């Protein structure tokens, strides 16, 4: 069975006993701090992975906070062009030389990670690669020592992984109420639970509105535009992984120019509070994540009752205007 390949490091169990012993004496002990990444490799209390085995642990990495690291304390990464559902690695050849995969060799020791989140995926060459939260894990060849994270944000597709397999260092980002000054940037990415999607320069998911018409003036204005801020074409629009031929602009009712992809006006969603969320997918049966090809995402909608209009009515003060027909 797959679960037998993954074992919780003895050091973690020992640490748990220390905490229990402290609490049993009547004094509540504080949870131990996570060690810096640079200290993981040489920490005397951590049982190092034996040769031929793999270890995945949690450590601190500067401004990124907690990240996954290997047995030597090197930061581990995830790739947006992979997929988590189902798990799939798309980094091979020269890519795998720059981003060596974390292979499941022998027993994989786990420390500070929920065992239920750890798995493996078969690579194109037949080898098994470790996954956390469905995302394949990699090292970065340019990280020269433990604690470095030079791969963070490379190509807007590589990010240090956190203990749940998510992107480290992005949880604290707030959704922009309106577009920041400067140029817009659209990036082809892969959003958890959705698949292929376009995100902005901050990693926030972008949407299309099916009540709009392709290459026509957008119909989301007023309160609707507060809930669904339009992506404005201010200056040059940078593209990454999106065909330049799909990019366009359309004039809004207020005279501003809005970015279009495949003819569809592009929006953010104010209720996406963190990069990588897609809370707007399926809202009102009219709002959907937009894919890099400029089409509506066909990913399943979590709340199908809300999409079809059969959900229990919300209190008037909680029902945003855009969900009632914008």
Give short descriptive properties of this protein.
single chain, 326 residues, alpha+beta, 2 domains, three-stranded antiparallel beta sheet, 5 helices, 10% helix, elongated, disordered C terminus
Q: Can you tell me about this structure?
A:
- This protein has 326 residues and is of the alpha+beta class.
- It has 5 helices and 19 strands.
- The protein has helices at residues 10-24, 37-40, 94-98, 223-227, 304-308, and strands at 6-8, 54-60, 66-69, 77-79, 83-84, 87-88, 108-111, 118-122, 128-132, 135-136, 158-160, 185-191, 195-199, 207-209, 238-240, 247-251, 257-261, 264-265, 287-289.
- The strands form 7 sheets. It has a 4-stranded mixed sheet. A 3-stranded antiparallel sheet has the order 8-9-10, with no helix packed on it.
- A hairpin with a 5-residue loop joins strand 2 and strand 3.
- The longest helix has 15 residues, at 10-24.
- Residues 1-29 form the signal peptide.
- It holds the Pfam family Lipoprotein_15.
- Keywords: Signal.
């Amino acid at each position: 069975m797959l679960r037998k390949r993954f074992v919780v490091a003895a050091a973690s169990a020992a640490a748990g006993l220390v905490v229990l012993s402290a609490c049993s004496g009547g004094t509540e002990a504080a949870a131990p701090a996570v060690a810096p990444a640079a200290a993981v490799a040489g920490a005397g209390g951590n049982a190092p992975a034996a040769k031929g085995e793999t270890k995945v642990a949690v450590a601190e990495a500067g401004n990124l906070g907690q990240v996954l690291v290997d047995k030597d304390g090197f930061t581990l990464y995830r790739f947006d062009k992979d997929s988590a559902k189902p798990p799939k690695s798309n980094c091979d050849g020269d890519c795998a030389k720059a981003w060596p995969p974390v292979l499941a060799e022998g027993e994989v020791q786990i420390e500070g990670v929920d065992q239920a989140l750890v798995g493996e995926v078969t690579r194109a060459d037949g080898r098994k690669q470790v996954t956390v939260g469905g995302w394949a894990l990699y090292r970065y060849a340019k990280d020269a020592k433990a604690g470095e994270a030079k791969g963070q944000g490379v190509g807007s597709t590589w990010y240090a992984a956190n203990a749940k397999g998510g992107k480290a260092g992005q949880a604290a980002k707030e959704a922009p109420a309106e577009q920041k000054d400067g140029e817009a940037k659209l990036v082809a990415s892969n959003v958890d639970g959705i698949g292929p999607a376009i995100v902005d320069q901050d990693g926030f998911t972008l949407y299309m509105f099916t009540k709009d018409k392709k290459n026509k003036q957008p119909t989301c204005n007023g309160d609707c535009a507060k809930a669904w801020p339009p992506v404005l074409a201010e200056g040059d629009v940078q593209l990454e992984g999106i065909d330049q031929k799909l990019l366009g602009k359309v004039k809004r009712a207020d005279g501003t120019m809005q970015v279009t992809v495949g003819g569809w006006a592009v929006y953010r969603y104010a209720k996406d509070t963190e990069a990588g969320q897609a809370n707007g997918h399926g809202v009102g049966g009219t709002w959907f994540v937009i894919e890099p090809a400029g089409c509506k995402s066909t990913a399943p909608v979590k709340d199908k009752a809300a999409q079809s209009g059969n959900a229990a009515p919300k209190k008037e003060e909680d029902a945003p205007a855009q969900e009632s027909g914008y």
